[in-house]
Amino acid sequence: MAIANSRRAFLTAKVVRPALPRPLGALAEAQFAELCTGCGDCARICPEGIIMRDGAELPVMDLNAGACTFCGACTEACETGALVPGQAWLWRARVDEACMSRQGIACRACEDHCDAQAIRFRLITGGRAEPRIETGLCTGCGACIASCPTGAITLHQNTQDTEVRPC
Ligand code: SF4
Ligand code: SF4
Ligand code: SF4
Predict the structure, then answer these.
(1) Ligand 2 — pocket residues by CB below 6 A?
(2) Ligand index nearest the alpha carbon of residue 37
(3) Pick from 16, 18, 25: which is nearest to 45 by CA?
């Protein structure tokens, strides 16, 4: 009954691209929403404990809770076809204006947490340093997100260069 209710609630709502990533292997949003029953199998099996429910009771990855290792367990656990192996992972990190380093406060926490070495800092005026995320190196794992004291980093489905703009 809970599944039926959540599904009905979702299907009566407008299908929009979620602000947070669906689990690894998710089909395009409309297809995902049609197939996902909200059973929670993906969330239960995730060893990192980063799969939560959104307002429609469907799974999203909360990268403030940890990083995705791309282990694929969530994809394998899904029996409905909502998560399918081989789907491209297009999410990449982006830094916004809340970054302390951009304001002249020493901080390199995100760089320290990025195993892919995708974050570089460029000195700019006033003793400030601007973070630059190389999308070619960024895996979209989200390990940098929880490390940021001001919550300046989020993931976006964006294959473009994510360099923050100068003030
Ligand atoms: S790929 Fe692994 S770590 Fe990432 S969300 Fe799925 S189960 Fe969790
Ligand atoms: S296992 Fe599949 S059907 Fe179940 S909640 Fe996760 S994505 Fe949806
Ligand atoms: S999402 Fe992962 S790979 Fe990309 S910048 Fe953050 S820590 Fe590095």
Answers:
(1) 23, 36-42, 59, 77-78, 80, 82-83
(2) 2
(3) 25
- Whole-prediction pTM value? 0.84
Which of 155, 166, 152, 92 minimizes the C-alpha distance to 122? Answer: 166
What are the structural domain ranges in the chain? Answer: 2-77, 92-157
How far does the centroid of ligand 1 lie from the alpha carbon of residue 36, in Å? 17
CB atoms within 10 A of CB 112: 11
* Of 138, 129, 139, nearest in space to 166 by CA: 129
| Residue 56 contacts residue 36 (beta carbons within 8 Å) | no
> So what's the architecture of 92-157 in CATH?
2-Layer Sandwich (3.30)
Q: What is the pLDDT along the chain (167 residues), one digit of tens a residue?
A: 444 444 444 333 444 556 899 999 999 999 999 999 999 999 999 999 999 999 999 999 999 999 999 999 999 999 999 999 999 999 999 999 999 999 999 999 999 999 999 999 999 998 899 999 998 999 999 999 999 999 999 999 865 544 443 33
User: Which residue's CA lies nearest to atom 2 of ligand 2?
Assistant: 78
